[in-house]
Amino acid sequence: MSDDTETLIALVASLLPRSTETPTQDAILDALVQANGDAFAAAHNLQASASKTNKRKSVGLESWLKPQPKSKRKAAERPVTTTPAASSRPPVFASKAPASTSEESTKFMAVLRQAPSPKKNPLRLPPLTLANPEMIARHTPCTLHLSVLPPELACRLFYTMTDASQAWKKNKWWLFDRVVESPHLTSFFARSTNGLDDDETWQEAAQYWYNGRMTDPPAKFPPEMEEACKIVENIVNEEIAKRDRLFKLEWMDSKGSKPSWRANVAASNCYRGGKESVGFHSDQLTYLGPYPTIASLSLGKFIRNFSLREVIPLDQKDVRSAQTFNIPLPHNSLIIMHASCQERFKHSIPPQAAIDLFRPTHPRASIDGKDAVLEPSNCRINITFRFYRPDFRPATIPRCRCGIPAILRPDMKNRNDEETDRYWWTCYAGAQNEGKGCDFWKVMDMKGEGECLRMFSTINNIFLGFPFGRVIPIMVFSESVNFMLLDRFGRRPVVMVGVGGLAVTTLLFGLSTTFNAAILTRALAGLFSGNVSVIPTILCEVMDESNQAFAFSFFGLWWPVGVIIGPLLGGLFSKPASRYPQYFDREFFRTFPYFLPCFLVSSLAALGFVITLIFLKETLNANPKEAQGSPVHYGSLANAPSASVARKHTTKEILQAPVIGELCASGFALSFMSTAFDVLFVLFCFSPIQSGGLAFSASVIGFALSAAGWIAALLQAFFMPTILRRFNHASVYHFCMRLWPYLFLALPILNVIARAGTSTETGLSSSLAVTLTWVGIALILCLARVAFLAYTVNVLLVKRFAPSSSALGATLGLVQFFICLARAFSPTFASVTFVFSAEKSPLGRYTWVAIMTLLGWASSYFSRTIVRESLKLSMIH
Ligand SMILES: O=C(O)CCC(=O)C(=O)O
Ligand SMILES: [Fe+2]
After folding, report:
1. Phi then psi dihedrals of residue 332, to 5 deg
2. What interface predicted TM-score (ipTM) does this complex get?
3. pTM to 2 decimals?
4. Does the keyword tRNA-binding apply (predicted)?
């Protein structure tokens, strides 16, 4: 898992005899460059020069740079720019190498080149051995845990791994035109579960592990490792729970404010004897994400040192220097590298004199009844348990021009605080692809991309995971119950119970501190929210043809308004204790960080309750025109109005009434298409441009969606009444429904624009491409909001075609039931189709577009039938 350059440096260091004074990193780089990347030759040269003089100056890097023309010198400076303004730009590599140097060497140097050395060197601190867990916790972001596994399991696992290690490989990679190898053996394992969901794409991520090359699927955890892993997970989670510091980009699942750590992959190393070592490095973050927690189990070898050294940020180099901490790791110990360790420290297993053999405390299981002997061993086995995050799966990782996933590294030398620290994506192909990579380099947008990646996991949790999956069926159920209650108890009590219940459950949701309580209260809120479709029933009953266009448009206005202000309230008022400490830094708000937004939402619902109580009159059997004796035309069953008004219709009868079946099917299709569009639009926007998306950050997507909310509100308020008055409702409905396939079809065009306008060298987009992309997004979202108007028209059509006024509530309920039903599984369908297209589909990454377009076209069949039937009926009446 080590970074190629760092490991190479470490390899050289580990090849030097212990008697040689360890040279500086620059000196090793220098030797490597002179030896054209041959680690063994570099070590040899260093050893030879160390014996000649210990005053040797590291001239290689500087002299290597000197022949560059003046104009290029600035460009040849280290790839990491330090000013915030420049930080979003990719590094400028030395584009032309001196005549005598190969292009590969130039790139290599550009990557290796460190910041200019500080003028003064602060006092060097001698290495410090951290002899006990307390010292370790004080000096490093690590904790040490001794005797973690039952002794018998520790020995069993040790035997399994040493046996398996016979087939393991040395870590190999390309440098210039030759292959270099690390001395120790290494292997990779993936657990059969990722600990979170059934999504198996993380297994694929694990396959990229071997130095950027797609490898065979990794081995599954052997049973002993699985047993050990469960114990390790418990220790890690207990330890995480004790830590008060949480990092913004640290993994956080939906269960609460503390990260719940899972081990779903493991890298294992076998060091045969004291010479085999691994040099200072920090682990790649590609699939672990920022601030990972890594748990490293040591087995065998009586004691082996684990060294940690802080990377001092450049701006502090003058004032303090790094100290090396040595942590002796005994057999059966666990060192947990907590969040920020990979960002701040490098770690290594330095070479060590082979002084002792490990004598297992338990023998191998006796084979054929014969008791096996206790075999001493000079091996040390290390298993690093890691958690591949669901928001860092292949679909979200940018690919470089070589077509493989880029790797994520922290900018260790320019750390300030968590807010402005940076990570970057770079090409990793060079390590395997015969030394030929590309210059792909992209700063990870901490605020945007970080949130965006988190949003991916949120989407997963919301749409695929437990909470939403439970809430929607409850709404479907509640929908049916509501409509049974409507006719029995009347509209008013149902609305009051709904809004009142919503107020109470939302408040309780804000007060829940456990996952189960949150799910229960949210599910109950879903139960009470089902009555949203009772309102159209009331509107149908109190409005007539003269005012319904306005009433329904006005009613439709509030959904988008809710969509705008809901997330706003959540965003502005969650965690108020840390956000607005001057007002809310109270124990209560620290304990219930989501209470405030829930309270505000609950207050709105409570206001709704009061308004209903004071102003809403019962509307059951209160149709104004019918009350005045003038019959209103309902569907064909209304041919005998006076009889049918009084009679109750069965569900079967209602479904068999002309147009109603089509309205149910079409309502289902509408809800399926529109919900899928919302999910796919977000997934599309934040997937990387190379993977067919737009690489937008969460905040940008949020902006686009809230702008769309405003568009919807404006359309409802200003255009809808006129449209409804002027045009035939069935035709308007059909028009809206026909838009869906085109909306899906249009999305990939945005990617084509973004792709054409983005430089493969720098990853920057041209202003023309940005403008065109935004124009495209605006058009698509506007049209989508027009298509959303179909919801309002659907209700009017139900009103028009309900078999009779007494069946109106039941008919609306039936159609709403189908609308809710589609909403229950459309998000899952959309997400799965998207992930399938990105990962597995033989038809390519836009398979989801083809599927949704076809479904869109197919579903407009129902609205076409509605147009035809409505024409027939209007000729009859
Ligand atoms: O062997 C060890 O303890 C450390 C191994 C390591 O750092 C790695 O595999 O990345
Ligand atoms: Fe490591």
Report:
1. 60, 35
2. 0.98
3. 0.48
4. no
